[in-house]
Here is the input.
Amino acid sequence: MLGLMAAPSIAQDLPQPSPAATNMQRIGLTDFKMEYSRPGVKGRTIFGDLVPYNEMWRTGANKANQFTSSTEFNFGSTAVPAGTYSLFSIPGEKECVLLLNSETELWGTGDYDESKEVARFTAQVEIEDESGERLEFWFSDITENAGILNLMWDTYHVKVPLSVEVQERAMANIKSAIEIDPSWQKYRNAASYCLNSNTNLDMGKDWINESLARGGDKSWYTYWVKAQILNATGDVKSAKIVGKKAIAVGEEAAKAEGEEFQYAEGLKEDMAGW
Here is the structure.
């Protein structure tokens, strides 16, 4: 009797017609996450039939999908605060309107509240040669501060540009890290960021000099970062002098270990192009 009474409470783990999926991507210092369900084509005509044109669609199956950003971002050209949103759409033959809404507990479009929309973007529809059986979201074309959110089902493919602010946050993080730990490594990391992002190079020069003064002169790479910054600011003559110093420091350290400095030829080739 107890066994019969308990049976209905046992959860059944069965395959779902529209399985759940999660796709995550970091862009700059921002973490994006797309959580959604993936209905299948199953031989049906999707757009213009199962999903009517010019009508609002939940853009998936089951509960409204969840699009999350850890910082403020741009959805197309619209600034959106950090948070979690549902993504609805209005598909058309040539264009598809994608909408972010702050209401995340919807299971369809019946209670959709336009007053809670935070952004709209009209994307051009691309019809692909090959069909995707299940609806899919993914991120592509990732750069330091931008990327693309892709939506595709069957052959219907649309893209939404995303962008984030990076440099201001990165510089704030750098200054905070240096205040906590003013080591030569932290100063070199800060200078490397300026070099790699090609921004605030004068500050990067000050930081790399501070790194050398605090003990970074024992590392060939610290000199090499300085050489590259000097080259980037147009002081090629000084850059080559410091570049040669980097090689000398690297060769001396390698010799002390009974080895050869394996980066020497590569650095010489780089300097030859300056």
Observations:
- Residues 236-256 form the longest helix (21 residues).
- Residues 73 and 79 are 6 Å apart (CA to CA).
